[in-house]
What we know:
disordered N terminus
Amino acid sequence: MLRSRKRTAVAALAALALLVTGAQASGIIEPAGQAYLDARAPVDRRVDDLLRRMTLEEKVGQMTQIRLGKLRGNCEWNPGPLREDCMKAVLEDAKVGSILSGGGDAPNPNTPRAWAEMTNAIQKYAMDHSRLPIPLIYGADGVHGHSNVLSATMFPHQIGLGATWNPELQQRLGESTGRAMRATGVFWNFAPVSDIARDTRWGRYYETYSEDPVLAGALAAANVRGQQSDPTDGTAKLTATAKHFAGYSEPFNGHDRAPAQLPIRYLQDTVLPAFQPQFDAGVGTVMINSGAVNGVPAHASKYLLTTQLRERMGFRGVAITDWEDIRFLVDRYHVAADYQEAIAMAVNAGVDMAMEPSNAAEFTSGLLASVRSGAVSGKRIDQAVRRILKLKFELGLFEKPYVDPEKADAIVNGADRALARQAAAESAVLLRNEGGVLPLSSSVGKLVVTGDTADSAARQLGGWTVGWQGVPEWSPMPPTVTVLQGIKAAAPSANVVSAPTQAEAVAQAGDADAVVVVLGEDPGAEGEADTEEPALTAAQQGLVDAVRATGKPVVVVLLTGRPQVLGTVADAPALVAGWLPGTEGGAAIADVLFGAVNPSGKLPVSWPKSVGDQPFSYDQVRGANAAPGSGYDPAFAFGHGLSYTTFTTSTPTLKSAEVGRDDKVKVSVKVANTGSRDGTLVVPVYVHQPVSKVLTPQQRLVAFTRVELKAGEERTVDVTFDVKRLAVTAGDMDGGGKPEVAKGAYEVVVGDGKARFTVR
């Protein structure tokens, strides 16, 4: 089947290559020589050649992305088979250039092979029914593995991966995700998220890596490099996405897509830097913030999408909207009188492609009308389409538009589960371990396991798993090791008792050696996962209080998408933050609990004491109020995380005590494992600026590294950072200046040690 499809596509391309015509009445220029079909020709030449052959209608179609549902079933939401009349309306009549599967928009059956067959069929229809066979690019949200596919391995969500502080691991996870998605014909992944975590009320908190832009940016860039690495499986390449540009993660009331008020200084110095490493890594696409910033929807802001994104940050790829966001300019934000005006507003601001999931013809006709009226220039259309075509050429879609369905299952099903287990184990943060409760002995006699998430795969996997809001009730559950199952496997000779209720847990604790309480939250995504009370419930706290009252050692495992305010649980003898650890999460948590893995996770975010601590981050600037709680006062600080061994770090030394604004600073520090177990130490490097004309945080993260140390081992590690990371926006309250590095004195801070240097 695949070979016949390839022969059809090649024949279509060959037939097109034989066409030699002059100028047509339609105005299309078709010169002799089809340079765009020549894989040996430079990409820019191919783009130029194809662009001048295209009609305006064909160009506008390339700027449109439509959801899978419009091609099948009842041409709306019914998940039936593909239908030619549905595909004709979208792919042939509207000439749409991209299709996406939103969360849960999968083929039936939801297998890798079915995905590959479906994307191939859609691709073939598009190429067979277009005058110029331009391949589609198919997109999906693979936010923790190829997470729409039932049998795919689900990695930990980004908030957990942030706790690893391990860029190399993120690159490997990106490679795995890219491999799985490409095998199914999906060559555009709407991930990773570069937004920084600032408000635990926000429903997408778990999709971020960190509250810190340096950590978030480094991990996101590594993931991008992995996803976009050259394939070895004979498929086209895949593009990742930087999202959501920018200012999305700090809505003023904590609710998703509520407007944000972000001073320009804060936007430039804290929010945007998290995106720059992805742009520097060559990420192919960027998705625009669905919200509004400082009174202007991001999709209507030329300042954000052109001045900042293109001119100052150097992004050269494709900018796509989020779900239906151009329409929201009319019916949610009311900044445009009608849809046509909204289209012109967004395209002129810098949008290249519209994720318009429901009505391709309405978008394309509205954009055509805007061009014909002069509201959008032909030059701007060519600019957007040039970026889209360049992406498709660079990915290799013109040469390799199809995938092999016969290989898909073997590539995707159960792939890289060992990597998933490693990632989940490195994500775990040991918050508290009073009296050395952990690690547990694998020869423990009786162990009680209780809590609402002890045996809940759905809670462990979180949102964006098979469906948008998590695994749907009607769906089978992806193959998952729960914490209860992981504990039983790790201690096969123990009497592991599952106690679903508080009464059972208390009764069983009487003769137990220890009690493990696993707490979590219901899966969800976006606004539906917002909460005004990001705290453990009274029932959860009551369960922990009750089992602690038995006098037995109690270990609390927190499988949540955000730092929940703990209440009385904060005093439990042992606390482990496991986040949303994915399909191998239960095995990984058991590895940590029983000491097979020495925990190395460090908090990528600050853990608040109170629900009133919003927004909350370690780098908040200092104020004049010295009262308790007015400054940075977390339950557990950014970067906190215990180990089963002990470490020391020396006072840092610098290669040079005087540097220029364009220089790098090399920091050397001696680290030692002073305990009896091998372990991994995360070494954050901060900078403190004693005097600044504008307020700066007490300290800012500028670099970090991970060091594996044998018991008793000592070594010196070098960490280098760019002086430009110290830039802040100069000027007065209006933020009218540009980011620049102030001259003067600074201090490098590593642990309790400091080293002074001067920027000249």
